[in-house]
Amino acid sequence: MRHEFRLADIGEGLEEAEIIAWLVSIGDQVDRDQPIIEVMTDKSNAELPAPEAGTIFALGGDVGDMITVGELIAVIELAQAPITQAAVTETPIGKRPKASPSTRRQAAERGMDLTMISGTGPGGRILLSDLATPPAVPPQVEAPQVGAPQPQPAPPSQAPGVVPLRGIRRAVAKNMAQSWSEIPHIHAFEHIDAAPLLDLRQRLRAMSGGRYTDVTPLTFVVAAVARALALHPQANASLNMADETITYHGNVNVGVAVAAKQGLVVPVLQAVDRLDFETLSVTLAQLVRGARDGVLGREHFVGGTVTITKFGSLGGEQATPLIRPPESLIVGFGSIAERPFVIRGAVTARSTMHTVVGADHRLLDGDVTTAVLSTIGSLLADPLQLVL
User: Fold this and answer.
1) Averaged pLDDT in 10-residue chunks for the chain of 388 residues
2) pTM of the model
3) CATH number, span 2-130
4) What residues have CB less than 8 Å from 157, skipping those under 6 apart?
């Protein structure tokens, strides 16, 4: 008997997915709930598990293909007898070790052989935590001295030619085209004094006994944006023109644009307006690290109500960022650097940053947009109120 495994509706209005990687081949034996394919939607990557145990009889596409809801993923020749948990706790000789794509990438970067690692996950699956022990240095390679300069990887290059639009770049292109063509943007700008938050950050790290080691300028920014939207709830909303409805969200869920190896991703920190500052600092640091390492699940990329973009991380001062549908607001921050700034009537060199709020003019007018921006600026100029 054969089972046809088809792409199910994974919610959030998503109708298609891109095949990123096959984790099995035709003829492989698979267990029930064993991941067999990695797909990408316009939200995030996801691994899809086998619904039945058996042998892979056919695969429904190649890497890079797009599959829609209801289309065939794989055909599984069902096993004659159920496979017990005891039978799959060890990796058979010659069989591909069980591990997620992100774990495989981390192992490759660390020079680790997955066949030499015992997995602690279900069915002997190798988890990211199983890679904690650093690999031994090969005998022919001299270990680098502590403190010695490390060689930097060469910047990525692209050979001339035509390649398919796939992966993260395809998702970004699709979302930004929708944003540019459908949303009439308005932008408001402010030059913010960043010296107070830099000073408070230093004091928190010095006196907290390690409680605030994860605090960065971004921590204050996320806290300020969440507080501003809680004070101006009409900006924490989504517009649906097809239904002609406005949804006002109960929580402020902040998406943070992160430049990861796989491309620009936007993980979402849920209910930021309900987090204390210490919890926010730790949770945000974990979220950003997870996004850069490519280990976050799909649940970390959905439900955003506002996005923060940090074009200043690469030295940019000002920009006009595009809103991520269906959100109605995006907040951007430039680099923190010494610039001329007026303090009590005198021009002085001061650590400042440029801030921009982009709003959907179908839903928000200039008064609300400016009010949100002014609130953010006031909170960052007196950041202690974000900590208390």
Assistant:
1) 84 71 92 88 76 92 86 88 44 52 64 76 64 43 37 57 80 88 96 95 83 91 97 96 95 94 88 94 93 84 95 87 95 96 94 96 96 97 94
2) 0.69
3) 2.40.50.100
4) none
